[in-house]
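ugh finaly. both done.
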Amino acid sequence: DTLSMLSVGPSISNANRLSIELPFYSKFLLIAAFLASYNPAKSDKRFFVKHHGKQKKTAQSIKAKEKLNSQLTGPKPFPLERLLAIFYNIVEEQVNPSATIYSQVTSLVRLQLLSSVGMELVDQPKFKCNVSMDFIR
């Protein structure tokens, strides 16, 4: 049973510890969750919009980015809405929002690949990605 090999912990970093085959859209949802957890929301436009305009790099902005290396600070919570926006941008085909997509998010939480955080806001749930870059690869 693949699920019995899943360790309970805040972060799954060793890809060899776990061999799990996810459904097609779940893989993209997990990638989207990783991107949302490890990249600031303000970078979404730069990564996912074709004509976003140029950004000037100042010495101050470069130092700020070095200081806040997202891989070192760990995953940040993100809203479901942002997860889905990134997901719809990285999936090549047109996907309609459906119960299937939402149930796959729930399955990723059940598998502890994502964590639910701040569930007191039922209308705006937040999540955090529990897998490493190695797992995503």
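ok and the 2nd:
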Amino acid sequence: MFLGLRCVRPAILLLLLLDGLPGGNNGFFNTDCPAVQITIYAQMIWSMMFNAFLFAFFFTFLAKCENRSIQVVFADKLCINVKNFSSGRVIHDEHQHRLSESEDDDEVFQNSGVCVNVRCYDIDSAFPVVETHARIYMMDKDMKLHVVRIQKPNDDLGAMLYPSLPAEIVHHIDHHSPLSPPHYYDNMPFVNRSHGLVLRASDSSTGNRQEIVCPVCGETYGTYGRFRRHVRYARIVERQEEYPKENTHLGLEVPDRIPTITLDEVRQYMSHTMAEIIVVVEGIDPQVSGTFQALQSYKYDDICWNGEFEPCVKVKNNKFTVCMEAFHRVREPANENVLSSSSESSSLLDCQEDIEKASLPHLETTLRSSS
């Protein structure tokens, strides 16, 4: 046993010698030199750490994952319009949106609303970005950053995108949105307070949570339509049982009209409070597994009110074509004219080239600048 302990140090030096470190054959097998043994061991550790650092440094320098952000492009304009959630179409006649105020159903929260629309696209689909997801922030004029919930793609599911085709990011401006006038949130009757959380009205209308609280019995409901039906049924029961009006549903006053956020009111509010809207698209470079972010900022002058993006994807002979000129164009609501940014109004791209791939994962876009 003691013989084995006395052979430990020479055995370590022998292993270091086999690893090719200097000093192994210069008389350092003397067991009375622990300082030399520690020095050689530290030299081996330092050599491995330094080589690993150099390898990681050159690998990071060659990878440059942050440079992949230039392949994710955003539309020059941000559209704010009234959209039908069921069909996804833009409602240019806002009177149709206001009709839902007096209807006794769930259309106020489910069928239409004022929405923010952003378009993005990964132009290099030969090396597509993977695990892409989006976020939106609003910076007010006091330099405070506010989180903006995303309706499409659903941020409850990570707001995942497929940017190999032009994708739209949609935010519904409801009474919880930082883009809506604060008096809407204060004047919504029977709505439970958010207590500082960033919520969405669509979560309540779809049953994920229930934000409308009955002040009489404490029952919660997702929409005013369901709440009205509850009150009507409770009144029938209480009237049959001859309940007093005080502190019962018989004496509860339910407003017939629920305030609806309009496009003009959102425009006036944002003109006084908004500094910019920041859109973040984050993805992973599949070649080096590095994460990067593509950012786009929109100011008030970059907003197209009640406009919608021009379709930019066409199918011809079983081939997909993405026109980058149409990608930036916006349809004007009044006369259906097409608005484009000044940078492309002269002639940016030709848009006559088809994509020579038939499958979506290998979609390619060819850009050709005019001479």
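summary for the 2nd one i guess: The radius of gyration is 32 Å.
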